[in-house]
Write a structure and sequence with these properties.
The structure holds 2 protein chains of 2 kinds. Chain A is mainly β. Chain A contains 1 helix and 8 strands. In chain A, the strands form 2 sheets. Chain A has a 4-stranded antiparallel sheet with strand order 1-2-8-7, with no helix packed on it. Chain A has a 3-stranded antiparallel sheet with strand order 3-4-6, with no helix packed on it. Classes of the chains: A mainly beta, B mainly beta.
């Protein structure tokens, strides 16, 4: 789930059960990879990773960031995104809820081995950071001709 | 090439769980809420949402916020890992009568929705001067 730790106002157990079902379903349906560097859900920013035959696509759901202050690096197949989300505090106001993440964050994403660290593109739009990493040519499936 | 599509409405999409009888998964956006003399401000994280895909509804004392994230994704993508399994944001807030829901000001920037709800002018706190004789 994305977002809040203070989560559920009502129907807490229903919500948790539903969530559990969802997770169970997920593991049934997909060969979901749990990397050694993976972090528990709820960590900011939430991220999705997908693969096409040519590229790996990484989506970080990170609203309200200054893209110039983002630090992106890739070392072989290890993609690191670090930054800081500063939420200005209104001194004259009284706060009822502060669920939104504030402060420094760092997420390390282990991509499959054939990620090409030399061909990475990133853009930030509507609060989503999309990083595209090309796959190495040599790792693509090839047809072998039979003689 | 990448093409734009609405992930939530495509059950076949690789990053979405298969559609079933269960209700659609709804994301509950994290919110900050604070109050000052002029009114209440709500800030919600709705990454991926754009102005066109945002619905705000006020019904008596209920404020419903709905938004749809739209993320460009190649059609042949396969999911490797997913924290986010829906693109539908929804959250409801209870307002109170001293707030002027007709005058809500909403703005959306980089996936952060800011709602400013002013207090009715007659209930704004007034500073009371103490006269000394």
């Amino acid at each position: 789930m994305f977002g809040s730790l203070t989560g559920f106002d009502g129907g807490l157990f229903d919500e948790l059960r539903r969530l559990q079902e969802e997770v169970d379903n997920l593991f049934d349906q997909w060969p979901a990879i749990t990397g050694v560097r993976s972090i528990s859900p709820g960590t900011f920013p939430a991220l999705n990773v997908g693969a096409t035959p040519d590229r790996f696509e990484v989506y970080l759901f990170a609203a309200g960031l200054d893209p110039r202050k983002l630090e992106l690096s890739i070392q072989q197949n290890l993609l690191t995104v670090a930054g800081k989300r500063e939420l200005p505090v209104n001194e004259r106001a009284s706060y009822y809820r502060r669920e939104r993440f504030a402060g420094e964050f760092r997420r390390v994403i282990t991509l499959p081995e054939d990620a090409d660290p030399d061909r990475v593109e990133a853009r930030y739009r509507d609060g989503v950071l999309h990083i595209s990493v090309q796959r190495k040519e040599s790792a693509k499936p090839r047809t072998i001709a039979l003689n | 090439m990448a093409e734009t599509k609405e992930v939530a409405t495509r059950p076949a999409d690789a990053l979405q769980p298969a559609q079933s009888a269960r209700p659609e998964v709804v994301l509950r956006p994290a919110a900050d809420i604070f109050e000052d003399d002029e009114g209440i401000t709500l800030q919600l994280d709705v990454p991926g949402a754009s102005k066109e895909r945002l619905t705000l509804q006020v019904n008596r004392d209920r404020l419903d916020v709905e938004a749809e994230a739209r993320i460009e994704m190649p059609t042949d993508i396969e999911a490797l890992y997913a924290d986010v399994r829906s693109t539908h944001y929804q959250r409801t807030f209870a307002l109170s009568s001293e707030l002027d829901a007709d005058k809500i000001d909403a703005s959306l920037k980089d996936g952060v929705l800011t709602l400013r709800i002013p207090k009715r002018s007659e209930v704004r706190p007034r500073r009371i001067e103490v006269r000394t004789s």
